[in-house]
Specification:
This protein is α/β, with parallel strands linked by helices and 482 residues long. It is 38% helix and 20% strand. The strands form three sheets. The chain has a nine-stranded mixed sheet with strand order 3-4-5-2-1-6-7-11-12, with helices on both faces. The chain has a six-stranded parallel sheet with strand order 15-14-13-16-17-18, with helices on both faces. It is globular. Bound molecules: adenosine-5'-diphosphate.
Length: 482
């Protein structure tokens, strides 16, 4: 068995803000069958899950940041429940907060640069001093851990790690961890001035760019997104072009043990068997839950939305489309779960007040409600402007919910239009009118009971578990572990 370490700012169930948390919590459980033992290290936040667990301190150290001594401890999860070793790094004053990224005002924490750099430095301090652990590859995720491959290569203090391969997964290339040099130079561990250019992009420190330059391999979380990233990546385009030889797209999988309609711990009513009648009972019971919760009109197709209210996800398009479509008497209901942009949050609430019997909205991050939406909706809409992979459509299909998805990134790789014998309704040329059009098509499909139940039966059988992609990651690791 080979030991590797995932370094991440999220890992389900300890700390999750989106798809990256799901990936880091699932991929390690699928790797041992291919000869890889994967451990995970994240910051020790004050999340509810972490607060309930028992940990054993395995290392204590200090390092200099901003010319002050920062203490940290590495604590290994000793409670049972996870199928892989989880380490949490306790950095007093920096991560002992309930939220992962956002302060109460909905914006990122003001000390984000210091927190990011401190966590990454602590990981390296641990790795060079820890005798018991021997990781033969370091896998970092997005810009939050993107400085690690640079530190491993260029900081004299960490030269012991120079020969250890590093892999970068890009879950979202639009966030880059950009810092002003004068803002953070006192936070960084020492390196030679002549190497500073590797951290730099356009006169600023760019954590993602540094990771792209220094990591031994890079992957995006779907093949289509890899191509889009190169084509649309504005200022980083030349960098992607020059590093293309080490780039690859690997489609995310889902943890089919945790996301299982027959056993899902968040749901009351489970799928009893895979025959069509059992699916009908399962869907009806969970739809009833949502209809009752939001007081919705019965016997209408129910379209769900789950996600961040950010430009990427196109929630604005869906909210506008709901308004127009219901004004024009289209017969459907909608349930919205998400948060983010304050104007959109207000718009979702206003819609639920205007269309009291047709629209339900929750401005929240709520794992349990998300499961009910996957299980109880007839359709799940993802009008994304770009989508690195998108897990929602995969969860939706597993729970017998038909995806309505734009034609970008990972959605392109996983949802083909039903007119081509595919899995769902594809929105081409994304705009409000195209979303209304898709709602119209969903209503018609719902009325054609035979086609609709056949489609549910088909998509619920698809295997998007991590089995396939875990093997591709293993091959990638093995290229460096020979
Ligand atoms: P992202 O770009 O946000 O990472 P993904 O589709 O990759 O999007 O993953 C989203 C994950 O986050 C899914 O597990 C989804 O169910 C979950 N999620 C997103 N928003 C919410 C929310 N408001 N409440 C509960 N779960 C959510």
């Amino acid at each position: 068995m080979k030991n590797i370490l995932h370094v991440s700012s999220e890992c389900y169930p300890a700390a999750k803000a989106g798809g990256m948390g799901d990936v880091v919590g699932a991929l390690p459980t699928y790797l041992p069958q291919y000869g890889i033992n994967a451990s995970v290290v994240i910051p020790k936040y004050k999340t509810k899950w972490i607060a309930k667990q028992k940990f054993k301190e395995t290392y204590a150290g200090t390092f200099l940041i901003d010319n002050k001594k920062q203490k940290f401890t590495v604590q290994k999860l000793s409670s049972k429940g996870l199928d892989f070793p989880l380490y949490c790094i306790d950095l007093p004053g920096l991560f002992d907060r309930e939220s992962i990224y956002l302060a109460e005002d909905g914006h990122g924490f003001k000390d984000e640069p210091k927190r990011n750099i401190a966590f990454q430095t602590a990981v390296l301090e641990w790795l060079i001093n820890e005798e018991d652990e021997n990781f033969s590859l370091i896998h970092v995720h997005d810009h939050m851990t993107g400085l690690i491959p640079f530190f491993m290569q260029y900081c004299p203090k960490y030269k012991k790690l120079k020969k250890i391969p590093s892999v970068l997964s890009i879950h979202n290339g639009s966030y880059r961890g950009i810092f002003e040099w004068n803002e953070v130079s006192s936070f960084l561990p020492k390196f030679n001035d002549s190497d500073a250019g590797t951290l730099d992009w356009d006169g600023q420190i760019n954590s993602l760019a540094a990771a792209i330059k220094c990591a031994w391999s890079i992957n995006t979380v779907s093949p289509a997104y890899m191509l889009e990233l190169i084509e649309n990546s504005d200022t980083l385009r030349p960098l992607y072009e020059s590093e293309i030889h080490k780039c690859k797209g690997i489609l995310n999988g889902i943890d089919s043990k945790l996301w299982n309609p027959s056993t899902d711990a968040y749901l009351k009513d489970h799928l009893k068997s895979h025959i069509k009648a059992a699916w009908k009972t399962f869907k009806a019971a969970n739809k009833k839950y949502l209809q009752t919760k939001y007081n919705l009109i019965a016997r209408r197709p129910l379209i769900g939305f789950i996600g961040r209210f950010a430009d990427q996800k196109g929630a604005d398009l869906f909210l506008d489309a709901i308004d127009d479509a219901l004004k024009n008497n289209l017969k459907f209901n909608a349930v919205i779960l998400g948060s983010g942009d304050k104007e959109l949050e207000q718009k979702a609430i206003d819609l639920s007040k205007t269309y009291t019997r047709e629209v339900g909205a929750d401005i929240a991050y709520n794992e349990k409600l998300a499961r009910y939406i996957y299980a109880g909706c007839d359709f799940l809409i993802m009008p994304s402007r770009f989508e690195p992979c998108g897990l929602n459509q995969l969860y939706a299909m597993r729970y017998g919910t038909v995806p309505i998805a734009s034609h970008v990134g990972g959605l392109k790789d996983t949802v083909v239009d039903i007119s081509n014998d595919g899995e769902g309704i594809v929105i081409n040329n994304l705009n409000k009118e195209a979303v209304i059009d898709a709602i119209n098509r969903a209503i018609k499909l719902y009325q054609d009971k035979k086609s609709f139940t056949d489609l549910i039966s088909k998509i619920s059988k698809l295997d998007y578990s991590w089995n396939n992609s875990a093997e591709i990651y293993t091959n990638l690791y093995n290229e460096h572990l020979k």
